[in-house]
């Protein structure tokens, strides 16, 4: 391991003094066991500052092991194992990341009771924030003691951005306030809006909006955090083609900055911070307390789903059917629909496609080219189309429940032009065949967000989204029983599958929230032409680099060493 020395300070040292000219050698965040690590008494004192809301991490799977956290408990462990792949199991925890790679088998529920259960990659402590005052106290303590700070909301992040070894977490999950603003007025927007506390999850926002006859942009996944990584990273979901991405909805952010200031960031106030937070990625510019988003009045929402199997078909016919569907996406998304589809070697499923403000008959008409091909080719399929009178009813009626994604992932935004060009579409389908042949999963979320954000607003969403037809996610199954066995599939994603997709889509990029966390040249792939401007805004609002998250803007100045210590590069 690279040599390091750590800074140590007595309590009460002013924040400005802490950051006085750290030398290269000294530049690591304080780690548990270091002399600079706060004593028990200092943690207790900090706990009083945050009203007793400091939580010492107990790894979620502790009941599955005999460890310092307690004895093995067979029934509690069995219950955890049977629900481990549900987001709900992790999102109420103060520490557990959903992405299994980032749990690092530190306390693995599927491993033997005698195997280790340590905090490992989990934060050491979390502050269960009840409001902005807890944000200020947590950021100040982390800055003064030079602790690694993590912002944890739901724990969905695939890049492990909401977890971190030796860290103190600002835990936003319990900020559940929602408020309807009937008539929001600004230079850029007049209409209904919803103010969402940092911990509000997609389905909770759908319910709150519905009660006022409204709908908001959120994920296909019910549990992602709308004011958190979802909207800060872009945010795709059923209303995208009708209303734009999650980031395009933001009217204003209420934040606490690294320096402890409480600010409003909107297109007219602290507009650089507004711009960066809307699409420039979570966990790096400031800590969001609430987001106010555009709300939409929908009279009708239609939904269709479709599945067919490869059984009994020649591969050529199967992939021709897939090709027919994919080639319909530019027209379908232009007409206002959004789609989630999954392609496996043995089955294709569209679950579902949504047409906001679209009658069922119109959505059905858009599906005809695909259905006609299936009929013509004698391919059996299951198809349903239904009409609802609100997004919430449509969601509850026809959206499948999402598991935590048990795959090593890669991802690429596919330009509309690639799908519209017969030659490159053939090449894309051939890549899909290749990936499926090796057991890979391929998924797409299709939308047309070319006309957003509305009202002349600008934001930091990677511009390649605007001419993409879908976000393509590829994956190889995660082996939960053998952590090390996942290394080879991950390398296949990074070194074989992703380069093929990249070669076909030069100049495009990847959705930072659904990508390969080992993506080479991620600054360009994730943040595109905005990277330089985003880094300047990061440096302006967080000059002492309190905020860090893997692949976040500015994280290229830092590295995580084996064992989890976070240090500035060059130490
Ligand atoms: C099962 C599953 C389904 C998904 N479905 C979708 C989908 O339908 N559409 C889609 O677009 N994406 C989807 N995603 C990806 C999702 O958008 C990202 O995982 C996103 O990071 C989730 O944000 P979060 O705040 O809920 O998660 P967290 O993991 O808690 O946080 C993610 C990041 O956001 C930062 N952050 C969180 N809260 C704040 C805050 N208040 N202030 C500043 N930074 C903050 C954190 O530091 C971290 O960097 C899905 C992921 C999973 C695992
Ligand atoms: C913080 O204080 C509360 C209330 O006294 C207590 O329940 C909790 O265990 C304390 N947290 C830690 C980490 O000691
Ligand atoms: C084991 O866990 C269950 C469920 O959480 C709990 O009710 C029970 O008391 C635990 N048993 C022991 C011996 O701690
Ligand atoms: C979803 O997760 C649950 C709980 O862990 C598991 O029982 C189930 O098999 C998973 N389903 C799929 C399709 O992976
Ligand atoms: C389509 O949705 C209906 C609910 O309306 C559900 O019963 C069915 O299983 C779904 N079919 C597919 C193919 O997803
Ligand atoms: C496909 O076949 C089904 C069943 O015969 C029929 O109801 C449907 O109209 C056909 N659709 C198209 C697009 O040809
Ligand atoms: C498009 O490519 C496919 C597969 O190569 C070919 O069968 C088809 O004829 C082509 N269509 C056009 C319009 O060129
Ligand atoms: C279609 O794609 C091929 C292969 O990527 C490319 O060579 C060709 O120039 C494209 N045609 C058009 C009209 O863009
Ligand atoms: C992750 O696991 C590896 C292998 O057990 C271990 O060497 C490393 O220290 C762990 N990382 C953290 C942060 O715990």
UniProtKB/TrEMBL annotation:
Transmembrane segments: none annotated. Residues 118-298 form the FAD-binding PCMH-type domain. GO terms for molecular function: FAD binding; oxidoreductase activity. Keywords: Oxidoreductase, Signal. The keyword Hydrolase does not apply. Residues 1-20 form the signal peptide. InterPro entries: BBE (IPR012951), FAD-bd_PCMH (IPR016166), FAD-bd_PCMH-like_sf (IPR036318), FAD-bd_PCMH_sub2 (IPR016169), FAD-linked_Oxidoreductases_BP (IPR050432), Oxid_FAD_bind_N (IPR006094). Gene3D superfamilies: 3.30.465.10. Belongs to the oxygen-dependent FAD-linked oxidoreductase family. This is FAD-linked oxidoreductase.
